[in-house]
Amino acid sequence: MAKFDETPIVKTPAVAGVLKPPDLREGASASVKCWPSKPKDTSQIDLPPERVPDWQTRGVAALGDLLEKNQALRVFMDICVRCGACADKCHFYLGTGDPHNMPVARAELLRSVYRRYYTAGGRRLPQANNAAAFDEKMLELWYTYFYQCSQCRRCSVFCPYGIDTAEITAAAREIMCAIGVSTKYVTEVVAKVYQLGNNLGIPPAAWKDNCEFLEEDVQEQTGAAIRFPVDDQGADVLLVPPSADNFANTETMIGYAKLFHVLGVRWTTSTYCNEGGNFGLFLNYDNLKKVNNRILTAARMLGVKTIIWGECGHAWRAGIFTPALSGPMEMFDPPYPYHISQYTAAMLRRGALNGKLDKSANDDKIVTYHDPCNPARAGQLIEEPREILRACCNRFVEMPASTIREKTFCCGAGGGMLTDELMPVRMAGGKPRAMAVKHTGANFLATICAICKAQLPEAMHYWDASVEVGGVIQLLGNALKV
Amino acid sequence: MSTTTALWALFSAALVGLSYFAILALVIGLAWRLLGYLRTPMPLPTAVTPAPTSDAGAAVRVAGDVLIFPALFRADKALWVGAWLFHAALFVILTRHLRYFTYPVPGISVAMSSVALWAGYLFGLAALYLMWRRLALPRTLYLSGLPDYLALILLGLIAGTGILLRYWAHVYLVDVKAFTLGLLTLRPVSPPQHPLFLLHFVLALALMIYFPFSKLLHAGGVFFSPTRNQPYEIQKRAKR
User: Fold this and answer.
1) Residue B34 to chain A, least CA–CA distance (Å)
2) Which residues of B104-124 are buried (b: 16+ CB within 10 A; e: fewer)?
3) Complex ipTM > 0.90
4) For a disulfide at A253, which of A39, A245, B42, B219, Cβ 3.0-4.6 Å?
5) In this complex, is the C-beta atom of A350 within 8 Å of any C-beta atom belonging to chain B?
6) Helix, strand, coil % in chain A, rounded to nearest 5
7) Burial, A227: exposed, middle or buried (Cβ in 10 Å; 0-12, 13-18, 19+)?
8) pTM tops 0.90, yes or no
9) A48-181, what's its fold?
10) Does domain A197-350 have CATH number 3.40.50?
11) Do residues A305 and A280 make contact, with C-beta atoms less than 8 angstroms apart?
């Protein structure tokens, strides 16, 4: 595995609260690229199987189309003053030092093409106006650096105009999709969703098996008969977890089940749609919509009263889109869309869990909380997970203020980057988070995102932060007396 | 009629023409750009959270962004000081300049007289700081292109000539006002025969023409940033 300069960027994050920008290392991560997509996957998700012959014209036209459809993109193309306030806020820049990973420089990759084809100055005097043609070299830069952005929006928090690089990265990826340039990882995952209902490709039978196995497991541990219902027609609640909760993060799955069991709620998962995480977000609008529609379809099929989104960051980003993207949700009980953290916090506030929690069950843990990007910066979920943790853990510590809440650092693998070939960039991007975790002395890192739960153990190990990673609901489950 | 007089008449006419062109470019250009933003839809909710949950709250958030640059404060304290002083001084200077274009002069323009002196110097100093920062930090040096320097140089030159006009090569207010009011009342007269004033004036016209087609558009665009002006009102709340 290629390694980057490992001088810790954050030496004393809490004291200084400042992350020192690294030296510029041009091209430091230029060779780290995603594997290209394969026709077997693209054919299932309405994408060209390979780069189309007239890709330049079609790419430029796709950009023009997006400029007419997306106000954020249009405004963000014009108003950046290149003050550099965002430059040292990106974990990938902090980790790699590659100047193209400064959010503003990343956005300039798209802006320079915009200026070349959609502004008078850029058309006539490209060089004087920082305009550049959409050519082979530019496409190579796009493919590399728009897949070294996890769309975490941290830069937007520090931009005086709120310019959101996630919006720009998404547009560039959408354009690349239109001309037949996409990545194996993302297309494979979306194709699996259409085939089997989830990102991991777990077939319905295996999903049911896993649930039965978990039932036995919990019975053995606690002696209680806690159910993990699947496709329960007429249940009140449809839980849409990330599929990893049924497979890798089973402790989180057990947490949901214990919570619903204690509250006496009839809930279910669906084998038609047992995935919250929406990889359409990393591809294009059409797939984003198609994947998201499946949640409402599953809910209608099972006749549930309400849908609860599980612990998954990108699920929640798509989740809050649902009424605008997938049609009205009036047939469900409000509030909607509804997140498991909001639901749990509401139950705590209402006193539904009074006397049912034994905080000492988590006393072996010093817990700190990692805000996943999308819940914190897109989904207004900042207080709820903390409320839950305070209710179920005696020892809860916060990371330095400059690295949590809306200023949280990405785990380093969101936005369609959780794939092995990007490992050097993922580890570099995980550095600021790892430094902040180390600073707390915590031994348990709780979070509410399946991608974080997959990336953080590797990143923490890489940067020698000895913590266990798990879900917030997992800790609640530990403390629940069943 | 001597050659000099003829040339001057020609120059006057050209300057008057350029003035009207600049006014039209600024007004029409700005309207065209901002209406373009206004008519472009934003299909999905995109507020960066934590966000206000009402339209009024979102308006307050945008007003805060425009007046005190909180995001920049979070990002870089030194840059915040420089940028805020730069913009505040520019506001004072522009307000003070209203007296050249209005009769009677509005109260706010009169009230600024005591601070206008300092605002001029402050603006120049802040512009120098912003230029120094661009060149001094490796990352901003990497980012900066010709348009970035051009905007600062243009504003700096306008400020420099303005300060000189005020404190060194004085130009008569009456002459200036006759010229500017003539332009605004569509009865143009000859400009004052004062080279430094003419330079200051032409540079300002250049800025007006450049404004809608450059990054200076951030002044209007900031109101249209969906991550900041959208309230977070996604979840329907109801009694259960």
Assistant:
1) 9
2) eeeeebeebeebbeebbebbb
3) yes
4) A245
5) no
6) 55, 5, 40
7) middle
8) yes
9) Fumarate Reductase Iron-sulfur Protein; Chain B, domain 2 (1.10.1060)
10) yes
11) no
Residues of chain A with CATH 3.40.50: 197-350, 359-479
* Torsion (CA) A54, A55, A61, A64 in degrees, nearest 10: -170
Task: Encode pLDDT of A144-196 as tens digits.
Answer: 999 999 999 999 999 999 999 999 999 999 999 999 999 999 999 999 999 99
- Compute and round to an integer the Cα radius of gyration of chain B: 22
A15 touches chain B (CB under 8 A): no
Q: Is B221 within 8 Å of A379 when comparing Cβ atoms?
A: no
Residues 6 or more apart whose Cβ sits within 8 Å of residue A359? A391, A392, A393, A394, A479
Is CATH 3.40.50 correct for A359-479? yes
Query: Which of the 8 DSSP states describes residue B47?
Result: P
As annotated, the residues of chain A forming the CATH 1.10.1060 domain(s) are 48-181
pLDDT band at B236 (very low <50, low <70, confident <90, very high): low
The H-assigned helical ranges of B98-225 are 107-111, 113-136, 138-143, 146-167, 173-184, 195-210, 218-221
Residue with tokens 């008569």: B172
Chain B interface includes A94 (CB < 8 A): no
Contacts of A79 in chain B (CB under 8 A): 215, 217-218, 221-222, 225
Q: What is the pLDDT of residues A44-75, one digit of tens each?
A: 999 999 999 999 999 999 999 999 999 999 99
